[in-house]
Design a protein that fits this description.
With 106 residues, the chain is mainly α. 47% of the residues lie in helices and 0% in strands.
């Protein structure tokens, strides 16, 4: 192969926990589950709605680290959507010509 090295598609999976999660994802999930355990210990979970409220932080954090195709996880999808809608988008029309003689003066 002419002394070339082909990098495998899953080369970065070894840097992730369980091949899916990075350190921030593990911290978010751990904090959410920890808060849920604390709420279940201190709240009376005899009532259905109180039990649901107690496990909600863990469920929300699990949803945020859920893997999504073409992105890392739901958290990165939300971050990218937020950046897209809150930053100014600049689309410069160059016309039908590929090469333009004029340069942007702005």
């Amino acid at each position: 192969m002419n002394n070339s090295y082909l990098i495998p598609a899953n080369a970065k999976k070894s840097m992730l926990l369980f091949g899916v999660f990075n350190n921030v994802d593990a911290i978010i999930f751990g904090i959410g589950v920890g808060i849920s355990f604390l709420l279940m210990m201190f709240l009376p979970v005899d009532n259905f709605w109180v039990a649901i409220a107690a496990i909600t932080p863990g469920l929300i954090c699990a949803f945020l680290i859920l893997p999504v195709p073409n992105y890392h996880n739901v958290r990165t999808v939300i971050k990218n959507a937020w950046e897209f809608y809150t930053t100014r988008q600049k689309y410069v029309w160059k016309g039908w010509c590929f090469k333009s003689e004029e340069t942007d003066k702005k």
